[in-house]
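Raw record, unedited: High frequency lysogenization protein HflD homolog
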Amino acid sequence: MEDRQTNQALALAGVFQAAALVREIAREGGLVHTHAAEANVASVFATDPESVEAVFGDVLGVRLGLEAMRDQLRAENKQGQDMEIARYVIGMTVLERKLARKRGALEALGADIEEARRTYEHFGAGHANVHGRLADLYAEHISTLGPRIVVRGDEQVLREPGNVARVRALLLAGIRAAVLWRQLGGRRWQMVLARGRYLRAAEGLLDTIPAA
């Protein structure tokens, strides 16, 4: 898929998917869409993909994000939007910009991700050890940038160490997708002024996925 808008939509869907999964953990106490979560986590390590869709394995890997993005873009006003998803998406794109402006920060994060690759290759994207390692990288490289993304939900759920690690790993994956989106020419103003094009691209991508 070489179309510029399609590729941007795929990358942006990775941000929306991370947001949807973080909310899922906070509200449900765990992950329901485990395939989507594993696709997001694996995308952190996709540093030399053959295509944008290969970052997430395939289009199916980012289906949840495409659906979340489609629903958000279809909403005619703020009352129709999911403001929690919107807040997480904006937070990740803001942090991506702060990361990009910090000299050497992306390179340092990239180097640490490469060091974590052996853990990922040994255990796989769904393993707690991988989540924990990415959570450490989020704390080291992202949390210090500010403003922090405040995740709202069940406080008991959000204090559980495994959920803390999953949330941070997914936020890191969302920021990775935001970096990709930016590299493909994506800009935050486009989510408003080019929403129609993004909506059509998301709907077109979802049409390529066989019905469950």
